[in-house]
Design brief:
The complex is a heterodimer of chains A (143) and B (433).
Chain A: E1 3-11, H1 16-26, E2 31-38, E3 42-49, H2 52-61, E4 66-76, H3 82-92, E5 97-102, E6 111-117, H4 120-129, E7 134-135, H5 137-141
Antiparallel strand pairs in A: 1-3, 1-4, 2-3, 4-6, 4-7, 5-6
Chain B: H1 5-8, H2 12-33, H3 35-43, H4 65-70, E1 84-90, E2 98-103, H5 104-120, E3 128-131, H6 139-151, E4 154-156, H7 163-173, E5 177-180, H8 182-194, E6 206-210, H9 216-226, E7 229-236, E8 241-247, E9 255-257, E10 262-267, E11 281-287, E12 298-304, E13 306-307, E14 319-320, E15 325-326, E16 331-333, E17 336-338, H10 340-350, E18 357-364, E19 367-375, H11 385-403, E20 408-412, E21 419-420, E22 423-424, E23 427-429
Parallel strand pairs in B: 3-4, 3-5, 5-6, 6-7, 18-23, 19-20
Antiparallel strand pairs in B: 1-2, 7-8, 8-9, 9-14, 10-11, 11-12, 12-15, 13-14, 16-17, 18-19, 21-22
Helix pairs in contact in B: 2-3, 5-6, 7-8, 8-9, 10-11
Classes of the chains: A alpha+beta (143), B alpha/beta (433).
């Protein structure tokens, strides 16, 4: 029930993001979702791609520092209050969301959000108990 | 003014007789009281009786900072702790500082030499001395302070920092002598200007500057901006602290070494061979009057040369030229000695992997700044920005806590720090001194 995210360390200077997209493009890796968190000096690029092994290998080859993190991909009803309902469930269960970002593709009628949560097992259980669809990792990469 | 006419202008022949007598006494004392020196003598088949002339000093092996570290903290003291009245310390090459001790007589000797130094730099008992050297384990602040009191001048123990308050004190108290690091002196000038205070309206006549390298260009700038006559002072805690050598304001050409207390030598830093006067090499000192912490042929790592020519001021003591560099990688950041290896120890503590780092030193608004660039490897990396920022903060805090200097920490991508022949370039010093 968990998906794998790739995180890349980037210095905050011109052309670094383009360098990553070029490497992934050349390696034939498709980016499914992406988010950047940054400070004045550096940023962390988070990616969901269709081929983790290939993406990690090609980025490392080019000298980037890369790590893999487990995240949860969740279907969010595409209507007002859709995201709020899910955050409410997690909040009530005292599960802290470190960060989240949206997926480009829809899953059927629903939007897809990526959640970075420390205690994934508990989160998945609570979400499913509340009839929220958690998308399996393998499906996320090819959605 | 020459404070101690008897000693400072003594004819060379008489001076050398005193130096030899004091050297022999010191050798006897270190041999009987400090196991380190006794062992060194025995290993080289030397006995104190073999030292019969100043030439014989060469036969004794050198003492290095490593020797001091190996005997940390008090192993190089020649007296029992009950007769030690003061302890100071300076940075060592790794985590441990270099510790030095003083007996009551040593404190008095030091005060006398500092009083001589202040007098050589233009101070008299009528003066008010604004002492902006840091007080504490560092010998700068207290060294100048005791010398100023010994001279009979009035000393303001203002220490470092709080620059705006210092300017107010300068305006209100009217000090006539400034003692500080040369970069801090320029910083004072800058802050004074911002506050609308002109040094032309202040009462300074002379300034005595040291504890970090500076140049003739900086001297001209300081004299112009602070409207005073600037002289250079030299010292290191292992020898006694400030007051080992002083420039006279009459000549301002090289620093007189107080030879009735310290024997200087210049050596080739590689072969260890003693070089003749005028040649540039590493400065080595032997103390001949200190009780608690005598050193024999201590390698300072400072590069300079000696000038035996008579000076117009009348002092007969030999002069050393400005220190032009170091034979090791020690940096002086705002008067604090910093070794790259110390930064490395702090980084190693944070992360087991071998750190790839570089220290970038700049001078902004006349104050030294140090940035630690650290390559982010997998063990340091996190997908969460706050964790990375916490690591930066923690490293900066540890550097401040262990070394006493502020540093900015900047995480950079792997392989971005310049390497020469595969070895990382550890220090980029952009200061134009």
């Amino acid at each position: 029930m968990r998906a794998e995210q790739i995180s890349v360390f980037l210095e905050n200077k011109a052309g670094r993001l383009a360098e990553v997209t070029a490497i992934l493009g050349e390696a034939g890796v498709n980016i499914r979702a992406l988010a950047v968190a940054d400070t004045s000096d550096f940023g962390v690029l988070r990616l969901i791609v269709d081929d983790n092994a290939k993406a990690v290998a090609s980025l490392k080859n080019h000298g980037f520092t890369v790590s893999k993190t487990d995240v949860v991909a969740v279907e969010v009803e595409d209507r007002p209050g859709g995201l709020h309902r899910i955050l409410g469930i997690l909040h009530k269960a005292e599960i802290n969301v470190e960060y989240m970002y949206a997926f480009v593709q829809h899953s059927g009628k629903n939007a897809v959000m990526i959640f970075r949560i420390d205690n994934i097992a508990d989160a998945v259980k609570i979400l499913q108990e509340n009839s929220v669809t958690v998308i399996d990792g393998d499906k996320v990469y090819t959605l | 003014m020459i404070l101690d006419i008897g000693f400072e202008t003594m004819p060379r022949e008489d001076l050398e007789a005193i130096i030899l007598r004091r050297l022999k006494t010191t050798i006897d004392r270190v041999y009987s009281n400090i196991p380190f020196y006794r062992k060194k003598f025995e290993e080289n088949n030397l006995s104190p009786n073999d030292i019969q002339s100043l030439e014989d000093l060469k036969r004794i092996p050198f003492t290095t900072k490593k020797d001091l570290r190996d005997n940390y903290p008090f192993g190089m003291f020649a007296v029992p702790m009950e007769t030690v009245v003061r302890i100071h310390a300076s940075s060592g090459t790794t985590g441990k500082p270099t510790v030095v001790g003083y007996t009551a007589r040593d404190v008095n000797t030091w005060a006398e030499l500092m009083a001589r130094s202040l007098a050589a730099g233009g101070a008299t008992r009528e003066d008010i001395i604004h002492n902006a050297y840091g007080y504490g384990l560092f010998t700068g602040g207290l060294g100048i302070h005791y010398g100023a009191e010994k001279l009979g001048a009035s000393v303001i123990p203002v220490s470092g920092g709080n620059t705006k308050r210092q300017i107010v004190i300068m305006k209100d108290f009217g000090p006539t002598i400034l003692t500080a690091t040369p970069s801090y002196a320029l910083h004072l000038a800058e802050v004074a200007e911002e506050m609308g205070v002109s040094f032309k309206d202040l009462k300074f006549k002379y300034g005595i500057f040291g504890a970090e390298p500076w140049s003739e260009k900086m001297r001209e700038e300081i004299e112009r901006k602070l409207n005073l006559i600037a002289v250079d002072i030299y010292g290191l805690s292992e020898v006694i602290g400030p007051g080992v050598a002083i420039e006279c304001h009459e000549a301002k050409r090289g620093l007189h070494i107080f030879e009735d207390h310290f024997i200087p030598e210049i050596i080739d830093p590689v072969s260890g061979e003693v070089l003749p006067y005028g040649e540039t090499g590493e400065l080595v000192f032997t103390t001949i009057t200190k009780e608690a912490f005598p050193v024999i042929r201590y390698r300072t790592r400072d590069i300079t040369s000696l000038n035996p020519e008579p000076c117009i001021c009348g002092r007969t003591h030999i002069r050393m030229n400005r220190v032009s560099g170091r034979t090791d990688d020690m940096l002086i950041i705002r008067g604090v000695n910093v070794f790259p290896s110390q930064i490395e120890s702090v980084l190693m503590e944070m992360d087991a992997a071998e750190p790839h780092y570089q220290l970038v030193v700049d001078r902004e608004d006349n104050l030294d700044t140090m940035t630690v660039l650290l390559e982010v490897g997998e063990s340091l990396f996190s997908d969460e920005v706050k964790h990375l920022q916490n690591r930066e903060k923690k490293i900066a805090t540890n550097i401040k806590d262990y070394l006493g200097v502020s540093a900015r920490v900047k995480l950079v991508e792997p392989k971005t720090i310049a390497r020469s022949e595969g070895k990382a370039v550890r220090v980029i010093d952009n200061r134009k001194i």
